[in-house]
Amino acid sequence: MKTQKIIFFLLLLTGLLYSCYEDKSSLNYTLINPINIELGDESTDYSVFAYDTLEIKPIVYKEGVDDADLSYRWTISGNYIPPTLLDTTMTLKARIDLQPQSIAYNLLYEVLDKTTGIVQEQTFKVKVETPFGPGLVISETEDDKTSDISLIRAYNFSSGFKKDQDTTMRNLFSLVNKRKIAGVGTAILSTTYGVYGRYMTIGTRTSIDRIDPFDYSYIDGNGDSFMIDPKDYNVTSLGFSSNAGCIETIVIGGKLYTHYYQTQAIHKFSYYLLTSDMSDYQVGLSTQPEWAYGLCFDEMNGRFLEINGTKYLRVMNSSKLEPDAAFDPNKLQNFTCRAMFSGKNNIGHNILQEKDPSTGEAKPNGKIYCYDTKQAYYYDDPDLINGMPSKIIDLNDFPDIQNALFFTGTNNRDYIYYATPTKVYTIDLTMHTATPDYTVPITESPDEVITSMAVWLGYGMMNYTNNRGEMATTSSSNNMLVVTTYSPSLKEGFVRTLPISIFTGRIEQNKDYHGLFRGFGKITATTPQKQ
What's the pTM? Predict the structure, then answer.
């Protein structure tokens, strides 16, 4: 018992002595300098166009540590993408190959002190927007086997642009989708209807591709674009009726298919349309006026057919023709159709040329005529006059007409334009005269030839000479020709814009008002892009 008391007393004494000891071990430490990430007055919220370059330039340092002992990581994530490393340098400079989204991406910046393992973080928000606004879309080929798509946003093609803002975005299809188009473009069409109807359709002799014109991402192609796979993908014509039902049409293998835009559920081309009398047909070209049902030409039977929405192809009733009708729309077996487009006063211009019966192609030196047909509002045509004959215009006396490759016209004036390999002529339908208004310049190359021609129907502005001889400005829609050319020696394609005089209907003669865009491959098809 006495021994236990002694032990207890010693323990108590030890505790009292230890409690009086001043422990200074907690004061034995070294202060670590922080990693400093300075942004100055810059925000942490950024906005960048897809496929453009994002630059962020922070100042990073740590006192007492060499820059070589710091490492960096820029990682972007969000919007259902896995974290993606963009850069490993102090300042970020990287092309943003991400899909445009309404919600910003998350960008994480990490700085590692390799001497201590400490990491300092800085977060950013990056909004990726689409650069693919309204402009001219071109289909071009470098090898006559595959194609790509480029977009020109410019004063002539885009609202609100000044000339010094002209921008060309090249090879967008392959940039976004990591492959070329398998064929040479024969037709291209960009259409937008609300949120659910954004499609750019690209046709070749052997393939169909559909992409979203908002970001050029792939949607579908070939058989996947149809409810029933047609197996044949030889595209000869594309069209869109923005008012007469919002219907896209495509002609492949001689048959006409439709895609109805006013639905959220199905965005496929239906089975090809049948004729109203169940007869067979082989369509080459078609046209879609703004307010009338479209028209197509049946090469098999030599006749015009009305595209009656998504229902059928209406065969014209010859028994309903007026006694003095200029022609019978069902008796055109000796002709092939070269072009179809709208003219003034609800008239459709259809360029027909005598054909070689053995080949079905235009006969060399065959007679060329413009068969005019009537247009009627799709919602108010009880007498079914749409597509019925109006008149025949003989084009054979016009200069160089046998060498004409392309024909077009506007719906606000009585003029037709035709292009040979090196010239563009203006036909005044009132005066029945034709004048050579434009010759392809030889300043770039002596072998430059025309590869396509179309009236511009998109946005943008143009300059022209007014009736006082001064420069004036107006909308380029329906007032400008888009002519593409190609130089085999340079292996370069060009886009040339030719304003049409508001007063004379002829091509503007002041070349300072003409536009030029260059550096392309051979351009085979064009379309306006609207949004």
Answer: 0.84
